[in-house]
Known about the structure:
alpha+beta; D-Maltodextrin-Binding Protein, domain 2; Dipeptide-binding Protein, domain 1; 15 helices; ABC transporter substrate-binding protein; SBP_5_dom; Dipeptide-binding Protein, domain 3; 3 domains
Amino acid sequence: MRTPVALTACLLSSSLLLTGCFAGAGAQTAATDEAGGGGRIKLAMMQPPRSGLSPFSDDAFKLSRWSTAETLVKLDEVGDAQPALATSWKRISPQVWEFTIRSGVTFHDGTALTADVAAFALTRATSASPKPRILDGVRLTAVAKGNSLVVTTAEADPLVPQRLSSPQLSILAKAAYSATRVNPVGTGSGPYRLVEVRGTSGARLDRYDGYWGGKARADGIDVSFVPDGAARAAAIRSGSAHLVESVPVSQAALLAPETITEVPMPRTNTLYLNTRSGRLKDPALRAAIRAAVDREALVKGVYEGRADLATGLLGPALPWAAKGRAELTGRTAAKAPAGTTITLATFSDRAELPEVASVLQQQLQQAGFVVKQVVREYAHIEEDALAGKFDAFILSRATVLDSGDPIAYLYSDFACEGSFNIAQLCDPRVDAALTTAKGTAAGDARRAAILAAEAAVLRTDAAVPLLHERVIQGDSADLMDSAKDPRERMLVTAETRLR
C-alpha cells in the first residue's frame, strides 16, 4: 500500500517538519487564567483510522479518546459500571435489563438523545458485519420503552452494563447511520465535535458548547496520525505536540522526565507451556521452567525498567488483583531438566518479544534445558501456536477486553473449549473455577471468583506470567489534566487544557 503524501511528510521527522503536521498550529490562544484554558490541543496518535472511524471497529477507541462519542455506561477504576448517557439501570430478570436514558443530552447535529435513538444505535451494532468485538457470541436486542431502554440477551449475562461501556457501542445521532456506513462527523455527544477527518493524516475537533456535562476547557483538538515512534517523541521534544500517545520504550529515556507518564496496561507478557503434548506435558518440568525464569532480568534488560514484574496473570492495571490475591499453594515441585530439549517460539511483530525469547533461552539453558528458538511474523506462526506445535510460546496478551472484565481472556486462553488455548490446557478444576466466575454478578464477589480462577490456572503451570507492560504517554509542560487511562479509552477530556 502507498503511504499517503501527508503521512509521509510527517515521518520525515525533523522537528521543523513535524510542526507542520499539526493542523491549526498557528491557532493556539493564550490561557485565560492561572488554571489554564482556551487554545487548541495538538495531539499525536500512533495509528490512523483503519475502518473510516466506524464505532463498530477498533477506531471507536479514537472517538472515545477524543471525547466526541459516548456510551450509555462508563467504567470506574476497578471496572464497575457507572452512569454516562444512561443514569441508572436495573436487572428485570436474568436476561432482561432496563436502562434510564439521560435527559437534556443533544448530539452535535442538534438532535436529542432518546431511548428510541439509543435502541436504534444498538440495533445497528448487533446487525453490523463484522459485529463489534464486544458482541462476539452475544445475542442482544434493544427496544425503547418510554424514556427507558430495555436490553434483552439470549442467555443470562451479568455483564450487560459493562458491555455497554465499550466504545464500540457508542451512541451516535440517527443521522450517522446510512445503509452502508456509520459517519461520526458531527454526530457524537461529547464535549468535542468532530468536524473534519483528513484521511490517514489527521482530524479536527471543536468544542461543543451544548455539551450536557459543561463546556470543555480547551477550544478544540488538532489530531495528527504519526505511526513512527521516534517522530512522535520528537514532537514532544520540539514542542510541536502537546500530547503524544504510545511513546516507545527506546524513546522514553530521550525525553525530559516531567513530560513522561507511565501507566500500567492490562497487558501481560506470558510464557505459555504446552500441557497436552511434548516434553512439557510433565507438570514437574513445567514447574522447573517456572522456577528458572528471572523476571527482573527481563524488566531491567529488555524493557529498561519500564514494565512491572508479574506475580499473576492480572497486573497493576487492575488494582484489586494484587489486593485480593492470596498466597498460591498446592503447586507441583520442580524436577531437574537433565538436558530436556524444548522448542521456544514467539513472533517478531512486537519488537521486544524476540529479545525476551533470547534472554529466556539463556535462563532455561542455565537451568539445564536444551532450547531451540523459533521466531516468525505473527501471521505465519499463529496457526502452529494454536495447534500446539511448540513446547513454549511467548505472547503479549491483553488481559482485559472490551467489557473491562478479565473472564473473557481467562476463558479463551485456559478453558478446555477456549478459542485461544495455546497452552492446550484442559483441566476440570480450571473449567469449574472459570464457570463459577463467569456466572457471578459484577462486584467484589465476581472479582474474588476471578482470582480463584487465576489461581487454578497458575497451579497447572500452563502459563508463567513474566511482566506487565505499560503505556508511555508524553505530555508537554503546557498541558494540564490529560487522562492517564490504562484501558486507553480516555485521553483528552473536558478538563484537559493548556496553561
